UniProtKB/TrEMBL annotation:
Residues 10-257 form the ABC transporter domain. This is Oligopeptide transport ATP-binding protein OppD. It is found in: Cell membrane. It is a peripheral membrane protein. Pfam families: ABC_tran (PF00005). GO terms for cellular component: plasma membrane. Keywords: ATP-binding, Cell membrane, Membrane, Nucleotide-binding, Transport.
Length: 261
């Protein structure tokens, strides 16, 4: 029997109010995430999966707006917190690896400055030498070998794939209880993809709760414990990975499975 979820989303609705229509990007989503398990959120482009991850962090830009729902993290409803309180939780208790690393990294800051900000915000009392050792360690863990050069580089000096790995490393550096990985292996070669997925699996085995947002059911079959399928902002199917692959309930899930088998 599973323990209480560390992250629980209840009836979350995020709508975008455009000039002539309302886009219901997330429309009544409910899901639970548990420690020591990988929860996959699967859907195609425009399904609402990335908007949901932004909603959890209250980072939805206008004309988008969270209009309803509860987001419980460790017994605290994040929807009741102000921005200052949320800033203390982001990264420290729950961290995200964004899909587009180039737009998520400050172009005028070197990689080591990005890492130093994570340490300053979430790891008080760590000295410079210890922090530097942590920087090298997380870069090596995501498959980046020339760590001295990378730490001294600006984001624009790195390839898209390298920036992606830097973002993953920042997520690891935060030591959060919940890690949301939004398409963490997009734009990466197969060898690096394997290294990133192996690291996520290691974190899961250490007791971390991982939310894997992806369109790739092959990755889901390999990695996930629990799966939610999202289409047009709604969860249309859910279950353990075995249940979903063996007995999909929704036609959309069946079409996704047919595409890989």
């Amino acid at each position: 029997m599973l323990e209480q979820p560390i992250l629980s989303i209840i009836n979350l609705k995020t709508y975008f109010y455009l000039e002539k229509q309302v886009v219901k990007a997330v429309d009544g989503v409910c899901l639970d995430v548990y420690k020591g398990r990988i929860t996959a959120l699967v859907g195609g482009s425009g399904s609402g999966k990335s908007v949901m991850s932004l909603s959890i962090f209250n980072l939805v830009d206008r004309p988008g707006k969270i209009i309803e729902g509860e987001i419980w993290l460790n017994g605290v409803n994040l929807r009741k917190l102000d921005e200052k309180q949320l800033q203390k939780i982001r990264g420290k208790e729950i961290a995200i690896i964004f899909q587009d690393p180039t737009s998520s990294l400050n172009p005028v800051l070197k990689v080591k400055k990005h890492f130093a900000e994570v340490i300053r915000t979430h790891h008080e009392g760590i000295g410079k030498k210890e922090a530097l050792g942590m920087f090298h360690d997380v870069l090596f863990r995501v498959g980046l070998k020339n760590t001295d050069q990378i730490l001294e580089s600006y984001p624009f000096e790195l390839s898209g794939g390298m920036c992606q790995r830097v973002m993953v490393a920042m997520g690891l550096l935060a030591h959060a209880n919940v890690l949301i990985a939004d398409e963490p292996t997009s734009s990466l070669d197969l060898t690096t993809q394997a290294a990133i997925l192996e690291e996520l699996m290691r974190l899961k085995n250490e007791g971390l709760a991982v939310v894997l947002i992806t369109h790739d059911l092959g990755v889901v079959a390999q990695m996930a414990d629990d799966v939610y399928v999202i289409k047009d902002g709604k969860i249309v199917d859910s279950g353990t990975v075995y249940e979903l692959f063996q007995s999909p309930k929704h036609a959309y899930t069946k079409s996704l499975l047919d595409a890989i088998f």
